[in-house]
Amino acid sequence: MAEFMIYYSAMKTWLAFWSGIFKNNPTFRLVLGLCPTLAVTTSLENALGMGLAASFVLVCSNGLVSALRKVIPAAVHIPCYIVIIATFVTAIDLLMQAYLPALSESLGIFIPLIVVNCIILGRAEAFACKNGVIDSLADGLGAGVGFTLALALIASVREIVGAGSLTVWGDIAIKNIYSDTVVLAILPAGGFIMLGLLLAAINHIGAVQARRRGEPPPLPVNLDCRHCTMCPAGK
């Protein structure tokens, strides 16, 4: 019985992590956090910086919200979550200004705006306040990894098509990948177009895989707060 409980706990933690990467990917499945997604994905370096910063806040805020879930009164839980999130956002913002000033300047206001990112508050409200610390940390890490991978994919395509290069981090870059560049890809309009194309491709792949398994194609996610799959009412 003890071994079964350990196995069950480990599987629950693993599923909490894995779900955020694929099944409930914040960008490609839930279509959340689109402001930073469209704004910072002009280069892979910016995308990785934003993704890692958001992941740090997700993991830390999820863990602290879970640890304090029985202490925070239900009537003021949203303000308390925002204060917790803002604390970690301030910490990562100051750290980036101190040790990564160029990246901090490039990302600009979008680092402080992590405070109001619906992905962060959504995971605190939908998962961390109802589950243990370990599972909440795994959930935050999964959502952070999923968000980072989505940003990296969008940024890679936009930068290669729009600039013909790929700036991985600092001086680490791949030049002259693509000669016939399309500047539109790194402009704001190009962000919308690229995101739409990637969403269409991912939905098509999901439909093809479902048909191969003999299942109906997955239904599209309703894109509003009432049907958000991160909230209890949407499940």
What does this structure look like?
With 235 residues, this protein is mainly α. It has one domain (2-234). The chain has helices at 2-21, 34-40, 44-67, 77-99, 101-107, 118-126, 133-163, 188-212, and strands at residues 166-169, 172-174. A two-stranded antiparallel ribbon has the order 1-2. A hairpin with a 2-residue loop joins strand 1 and strand 2 (172-174). Helix 1 runs parallel beside helix 7 and helix 4 packs across helix 5. It is globular, with a radius of gyration of 19 Å. The model is unreliable at 223-227 (pLDDT under 50).
Q: Keywords for this structure?
A:
235 residues, two-stranded antiparallel sheet, globular
Low-confidence stretches: 223-227
| Main sheet: strands, sense, barrel | 2 strands, antiparallel
By secondary-structure content and strand pairing, the structural class works out as mainly alpha
| N→C terminal distance | 30 Å
What is the share of helical residues? 55-70%
